[in-house]
């Protein structure tokens, strides 16, 4: 949440800063702003509510000449998304400016303290106090050293932060600090760079430094980057990360939107993840970093995640319980963190599932589990993310950068990763022999082509979209593993089309929600060929009898369903019914996208959302 960038070097800062904001905009888009240390020795800034494009327009007519600067794209937490609350924030002198991602929990006390001491605060944000605390330190104990001033200010903060600061009296310097919120810095051709994640840096370097909590970095215009620890001592070997993808992976590459691109990338992502995972000894999952004996001893698995990743955990639970016969508990991270009845044994494995690897609730849950002595295994997409760095083992799903706020390719790749974990556990516990593991692995390897087929049938989703265009609400129904597909389909639809959608296990309809139905009410039923097919067909009959307009996701050739419903989204037969969710959901992703477009919504940047949820 919130994206920050910083630059100092030989080029005009505003060029890199705006480009950086464009690539980070998926982290928040309530407002944007930029501040440059001008050649005239003063700060020059532009900031406004709205998107980076609006900021860029304003920058064209502003005097932003200077080779050092910082910029921010905001997801509002404290204070409405107004011009005034946009970052960067300045101190009283107007010579220090900061951008911040995170939450300053003690900002009320700090505001009162600063106001009592004569500071004038111009915004309602928690972040602004940082600029004034740096100002106090700059004038006082730091004696004009920006690193010391930032360190001094950070000591008074409680909460989470990634900060970049500039000072008109320290030209050619950007100082960054991290505690809890992600921040990377790099020395590269043309200068020194900072950003919330590697996306804006991929075009200038393939090697970045990942700041650790408590560290502060000084970026200098000759490209030098120096990292200091909490006590101000230089860190000889800061943590580094090699960016293994091309900058073009985060561009549209001919697609009209990132959602379309990322839906299309799903088959390749799964192929990458599965490649070379089966050997003579079975499933290769060294990322777990656990011995055969430790794996065999696991007696409980906790799966913790948020949002779409939580839906992955529901599928993972079925796969692990069915294949490996281990008891699994799934929990929303935000709920888990305040539960009192968490039961762990010495052999409990905690698995966190997080595309970004930066979701604050999930990270807090993982820390809590580690605190209770649990091993934590992360399934994530982002290389070097906090989840990866703080876990005992990490499986990267390698889906490539996911830019669209609504997760698609990470969802299917994470489900496949969960299947690999389930197989590895089944094998280690002696629940499957090699032949069985091989059969399941082959079934997984069939998925990319099945998904290709569904993507090739996107015209079916396009045809179904008008049924939802004027609706006020929609219902998604499924049974067994596909009740989760229904949850995910409803989430996709509501988040990008702003159409209320609710998901229910199909058999539960008659216990209440069926009262919602009236003629024309759209219902999406997931009804593949599986053991609960006939039961689900009965539920479809019940909703149609109440006048609902039913769209079904059904298996090729299912005339019984086709003759009942208004519209069918066909899927090819899937070799294992437990894997159907990985194929069927692709129709629901496509459907949500077509409905959102028909309703004139921005599918990549839905309102009120951000890609990386770094606040609890
Ligand atoms: C929905 C979506 C979110 C995320 C959730 C967790 O399309 O993307 O629900 O799944 O915010 O994010 P990660 O997986 O990064 O922890």
How much helicity do the residues have? 25-40%
Mean pLDDT: 95
Largest sheet: 8 strands, antiparallel
For the terminal residues, how far apart are their CA atoms?
11 Å
Bound molecules: fructose -6-phosphate
- Taking Cα atoms only, what radius of gyration do you get, to the nearest Å? 26 Å
Shape descriptor? globular
Q: Which strand order do you get reading across the main beta sheet?
A: 3-2-4-1-10-9-11-14
Beta-strand portion reads: 15-25%
Low-confidence stretches: none
Number of helices, where a helix is a run of at least 4 consecutive DSSP H or I residues: 20
Instruction: Report the count of strand segments.
Output: 26
Q: What does this entry look like structurally?
A:
- The protein is α/β, with parallel strands linked by helices.
- The mean pLDDT is 95.
- It is built from 20 helices and 26 strands.
- Strand 24, helix 18 (533-545) and strand 25 (549-555) form a beta-alpha-beta unit.
- An 8-stranded antiparallel sheet has the order 3-2-4-1-10-9-11-14, covered by helices on one side.
- Helix content is 36%, strand content 23%.
- Bound molecules: fructose -6-phosphate (F6R).
- Residues 306-309, 354-356, 359, 362, 406-407, 491, 495, 613 line the site of fructose -6-phosphate.
- It is found in: Cytoplasm.
- The active site is at 2 (nucleophile), 611 (for fru-6p isomerization activity).
- Homodimer.
- Catalyzes the first step in hexosamine metabolism, converting fructose-6P into glucosamine-6P using glutamine as a nitrogen source.
- Keywords: Aminotransferase, Cytoplasm, Glutamine amidotransferase, Repeat, Transferase.
């Amino acid at each position: 949440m919130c994206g920050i960038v910083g630059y100092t070097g030989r080029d005009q800062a505003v060029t890199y800063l705006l480009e950086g904001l464009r690539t980070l905009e998926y982290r928040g888009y309530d407002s944007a702003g930029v501040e440059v240390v001008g050649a005239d020795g003063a700060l020059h800034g532009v900031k406004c509510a709205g998107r980076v494009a609006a900021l860029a327009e304003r920058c064209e007519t502003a005097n932003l000449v200077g080779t050092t600067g910082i910029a921010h794209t905001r997801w509002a937490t404290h204070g409405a998304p107004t011009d005034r609350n946009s970052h960067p924030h300045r101190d009283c002198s107007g010579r220090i400016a900061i951008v911040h991602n995170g939450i300053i929990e003690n900002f009320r006390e700090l505001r009162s303290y600063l106001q009592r001491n004569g500071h004038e605060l111009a915004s309602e944000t928690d972040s602004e106090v940082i600029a004034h605390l740096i100002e106090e330190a700059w004038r006082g104990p730091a004696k004009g050293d920006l690193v010391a001033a930032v360190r001094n200010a950070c000591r008074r903060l409680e909460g989470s932060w990634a900060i970049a600061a500039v000072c008109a009296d320290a030209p050619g310097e950007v100082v960054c600090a991290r505690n809890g919120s992600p921040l990377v810095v790099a020395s590269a051709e043309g200068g020194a760079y900072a950003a919330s994640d590697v996306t804006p840096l991929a075009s200038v370097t393939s090697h970045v430094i990942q700041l650790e909590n408590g560290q502060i970095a000084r970026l200098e215009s000759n490209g030098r980057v120096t990292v200091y620890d909490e006590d101000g001592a230089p860190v000889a070997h800061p943590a580094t990360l090699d960016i293994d993808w091309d900058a073009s992976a985060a561009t549209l590459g001919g697609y009209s939107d990132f959602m379309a691109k990322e839906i299309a990338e799903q088959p390749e992502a799964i192929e990458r993840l599965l490649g070379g995972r089966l050997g003579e000894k079975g499933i290769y999952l060294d990322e777990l970093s656990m011995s055969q004996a430790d794996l065999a001893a696991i007696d409980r698995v906790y799966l913790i995640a948020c949002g779409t990743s939580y839906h992955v955990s529901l599928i993972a639970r079925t796969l692990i319980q069915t294949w490996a016969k281990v008891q699994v508990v799934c929990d929303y991270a935000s709920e888990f963190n305040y539960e009192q009845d968490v039961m762990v044994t010495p052999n409990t494995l905690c698995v966190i599932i997080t595309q970004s690897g930066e979701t604050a609730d999930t990270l807090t849950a993982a820390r809590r589990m580690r605190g209770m002595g649990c091993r934590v295994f992360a399934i994530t997409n982002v290389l070097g993310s906090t989840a990866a760095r703080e876990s005992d083992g990490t499986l990267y799903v390698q889906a490539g950068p996911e830019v669209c706020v609504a997760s698609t390719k990470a969802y299917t790749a994470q489900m496949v990763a969960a299947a690999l974990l389930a197989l590895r556990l089944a094998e280690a516990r002696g629940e499957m022999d090699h032949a069985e593991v091989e059969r399941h692995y082959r079934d997984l390897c069939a998925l990319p082509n099945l998904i290709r087929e569904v993507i090739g049938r996107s015209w079916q989703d396009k045809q179904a979209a008008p049924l939802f265009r004027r609706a006020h609400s929609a219902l998604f129904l499924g049974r067994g593993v596909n009740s989760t597909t229904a949850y995910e389909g409803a989430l996709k639809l509501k988040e990008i089309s702003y159409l209320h959608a609710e998901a229910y296990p199909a058999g539960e309809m008659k216990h209440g929600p069926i009262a919602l139905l009236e003629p024309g009410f759209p219902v999406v039923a997931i009804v593949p060929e599986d053991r609960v097919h006939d039961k689900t067909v009965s539920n479809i009959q019940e909703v149609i009898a109440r006048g609902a307009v039913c769209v079904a996701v059904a298996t090729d050739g299912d005339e019984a369903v086709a003759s009942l419903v208004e519209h069918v989204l066909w899927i090819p037969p899937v070799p294992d019914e437990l894997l159907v969710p990985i194929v069927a959901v692709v129709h629901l992703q496509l459907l949500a996208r077509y409905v959102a477009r028909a309703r004139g919504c921005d599918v990549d940047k839905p309102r009120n959302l951000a890609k990386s949820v770094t606040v609890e």
